[in-house]
Amino acid sequence: MVVAIDGPAASGKSSTAQWVAERLGYLHIDSGSLYRALTAAALRGNAPPEDWSPERLLRDAPRVTLGAEKHAFHALIDGQRVEEEIRGGDVTANVSLVAKMQAVRSWVNASVREAARWHDVVVDGRDMGTAVFPDAPLKVFLVADPWERARRRLVQRLGRRPTDDEVAAETDVLVQRDAKDAMQTLQAADAVLLDTTYLTQEEQVERIVALAHAVSHRASST
Ligand code: C5P
Predict the structure, then answer these.
(1) For ligand 1, atom 6, which residue shows the shortest CA distance?
(2) In this structure, are residues 31 and 123 in contact, taking their beta carbons and an 8 Å threshold?
(3) Looking at the domain 1-11+128-212, which fold is it?
(4) pLDDT 10s digits, 13-51
(5) How much is the pTM?
(6) Where along the chain do its domains lie?
């Protein structure tokens, strides 16, 4: 079983996918973490991002793997967890450039498919329901108003209520990244569109779990 969750930056895909995986007893794969880990590996080298080519980036690919732990796969570099490094500002600023390269996309897609071969999974990203798992029985496309996405991201990062000026600045950053990722962010024709602007995280998770149960029920009764 594959549950594919796609959507723009900060739409809550990864945290929602993680909860859904725990509720269903599946494993979560965050495809963005592979793009981020490859970017982090490149940033550890000496070449500036202007000189990154697909060949140069993919030289580091064997160092980047997915390791399963409890209900999730984690991106590893040289076998080590790198969560803080891959969520940092340098990686976020350069990851869209890396993700535009078709050879990199093919490598990420193959890695995600391989991880999903032996497990039921909840995968999240931009193109999981289109390019990577076009036959996934459940596809969800998450959207939310950019201001609300920025507000949520800041609450998570700062641990307090952000000011309107802070939210406005973060909204600008998010909208720029949405534009850079627009070509890759694709809603499948058979995806359920879920606007989470006015939903709590619990409500989002409940809806996706309910959809997954409905899909399994349909599959077992046909
Ligand atoms: O999901 P997250 O924001 O962590 O992803 C980081 C970056 O990886 C995105 O900005 C996008 O450029 C790229 N990405 C992608 N396709 C995916 C997942 C992520 O292009 N399936």
Answers:
(1) 32
(2) yes
(3) Rossmann fold (3.40.50)
(4) 999 999 999 999 999 999 999 999 999 999 999 899 999
(5) 0.94
(6) 1-11+128-212, 27-119
